[in-house]
Amino acid sequence: MKCRHCQAQLDHTFLDLGTAPPSNAYLRPNQLHAAEVWLPLRLLVCHHCWLVQTEDFTGRESLFDEDYAYFSSYSSTWLRHAEQYVNAMQERFGLHSRHCVVEVAANDGYLLQYVKRAAIPCYGIEPTASTAAAARDRGIEIISDFFGQALAQSLVDQGRQADLIAANNVLAHVPDINDFVAGFTTLLKPTGVVTFEFPHLLRMVQGLQFDTAYHEHYSYLSLTAVQRIFAANGLTVFDVEELPTHGGSLRVFAQRTSSGVQMIQQSVAELLAVEDQAGISDVSFYTGFQEKAEKIKYDVLRYLIDCKRKGLRVAAYGAAAKGNTLLNFAGIRSDLVSYVVDANPNKQDKFLPGSRIPIRNRSALLTDSPDIILILPWNLSDEIRRDLDEFCIWKPKFVVAIPEIHEFDRH
User: Fold this and answer.
1) CB atoms within 10 A of CB 255
2) 25, 243, 306, 319: least surrounded by Cβ within 10 Å?
3) In what order do the strands lie in the sheet with 314-317?
């Protein structure tokens, strides 16, 4: 395989999780009698541009289809994050009714609803039919297509260039990262700004967050790699912020290299220095991650088997993609985790891919009163525990497995 950005031959394996089905391919009951598609899940690192990437086995259309089940609005933490972002961008860049804001990967309108509320013209680009329909129900205009240079040029031809483009948690999800990034250069007005948010590779490695690896994530990104990719496609990074979201993310600000007016902030050089000191541009930084992931796998298996032997009932919370990676890598099935509950009705009454653990409404917890609740989206554990503290009157124990098995004290 060759690098998605620079076409260098990829020779270094960063992480090998065996095989797994696509993490968002939730199963309906009538699909339980059919075979699932399992694909190798291996991450490689480019020793030339340092882009970490998933080995390519399937197209984006099969991963982001009409049944795509991730809806951003079911997390109150993420909604607050989106609202704060809109307020901050409005203040920093003086956005008003004569500007145009675009979100690429608009999902269910979780962010653009706040732009619309501020009376700033906006539209979203979202290829998955399920989430696009939810955004339209909020009165948000959605263009249902995959983003790239061709779509960007079509929008420019219609006079729909953007003053601000938001791209949250999508840069990692694109197979042709050069075409995708070049599309932003095309769609931006000459002095426009684009912001990208994505999980930070440095935090992934430091936090042993191997469960963020799944087929929908084609890339795992550092500022070092992103700056090079942007520069090759007509964008200049002028600012960067570190965020707590998704276990540690970056918000990167960029402008057109040919016409941007924003001053380059010291934060860019400072974070590049942090990554350099950590060893991002050295193969040794990426060695040893496999063994650490395997240790977590064995630790969680031992923990759940011990619970089983003690007669403790274990349920999980959050039918998240990262949870599916953990469960399938560890070979965990419904004999160890009876079911998972999720607030998203689009996932309820289905089954997790691979493990085939049933997904239930939260009310199942009241009926069953499990002794242990394994929180799979560990990045939302504070929000989930606050929510469950009052709901679970029988006081179960809350547990996360990443970066290690940890039992939480009650709030």
Assistant:
1) 25
2) 306
3) 359-360, 340-341, 314-317, 372-375, 397-400, 406-408
Mean pLDDT (whole number) for 114-132: 94
Residue keyed to tokens 């979780």: 110
Extract the tokens encoding 151: 């779509």
pTM: 0.92
Query: Based on the structure, what is the number of domains in the chain?
Result: 2
**Alpha carbon of 120 to those of 109, 141, 269: distances in Å?**
14, 13, 33
Average pLDDT over residues 327-333: 98
**Residues present in the chain in total:** 411
Cα distance between residue 70 and residue 394, in whole Å = 30
Give yes or no for residue 73 having a pLDDT over 70.
no
Cβ neighbours of residue 342 closer than 8 Å, sequence gap 6 or more: 317, 318, 319, 348, 359, 360, 362
Alpha helices in 289-350 (DSSP H): 289-309, 321-330
Do 373 and 313 have their domain in common? yes
Using DSSP, state whether 397 is helix, strand or coil.
strand
Q: For residue 130, what pLDDT is reported? A: 86
Q: What is the CATH number of the domain that holds 398?
A: 3.40.50.720
